[in-house]
Amino acid sequence: MKKNLILPTLFLVSFVLLTAGRVPNGQAAPFVVDFSFPSPVTQGSPVTFNPVASGNTGSLQYAWYLEDGTYLGGSSVLAYTFTSSGSHTLALRVYDSGTGATAYASHSVIIQPSPVRVDLSDPTSQILGQSGTVGSPVTFSGSASGGTPPYDFTWGFGDGTTGVGAVATHTYSVSGFSVIVLRVTDADGFVAVASRPSSISATPVLVDFPVPTLVIQNAPAGFTSSVTGNTGGLSFQ
User: Fold this and answer.
1) Could you give the residue range(s) of every CATH 2.60.40.10 domain in the chain?
2) What's the pTM value of the predicted model, to 2 decimals?
3) Cβ(2)–Cβ(188) below 8 Å
4) Would you call 180 exposed, middle or buried from its count of C-beta atoms within 10 A (0-12, 13-18, 19+)?
5) Which CATH fold would you assign to the domain 17-112?
6) 3-class DSSP state for residue 124?
7) Residues 176-208: tens digit of each pLDDT
8) CA–CA separation, 143 vs 182, rounded Å?
9) At the topology level of CATH, where does 116-203 sit?
């Protein structure tokens, strides 16, 4: 039975290099940026890079690059899949429209080899454009291929809690941005890790619905919603 040497750490963050911001007159600006990402990073599975900035006075413009100058996009949060193992340097450039300052950060990213490919989805976000709301359950779905089945699925929901199974449901107690991490281990012990961003909004309205114990294909199934905290009429989708 073969085993790879991927470290078991789920949320290890690597901080390697941070370059201070610069303003047009060449003086140092109180504007700095950095970014974090779940570890390990495995080939063929998406990883999310989450930036943080401080000291800015205006809106921010982002640009992500690999060490060879390849432009990866201008979104604030970057989800990227490395197709091969090895070491890369990822660089982030952020421009503050308020002060005209530009700040830079870069990290070394080690991509571990793995025969397993894994990804995760947030069906609620795909259908409704919002991952979920505080106090109401959110369901995440994982998929795996390659390696040797069966697969073991372990979730990190970004708020310090975890779950198991190919499909996992979680209820958030606070609003905000989270990075959802899915770790999959195959029957031979090979590991793959995927991560995706998720956003939870605050609302005084709580909603849920139970799922019947037995749902049969091509047979009708009933779902009854429960809603609390509303002060007016409700519209359902």
Assistant:
1) 17-112, 116-203
2) 0.74
3) yes
4) buried
5) Immunoglobulin-like (2.60.40)
6) helix
7) 889 999 999 999 999 999 999 988 887 655 555
8) 10
9) Immunoglobulin-like (2.60.40)
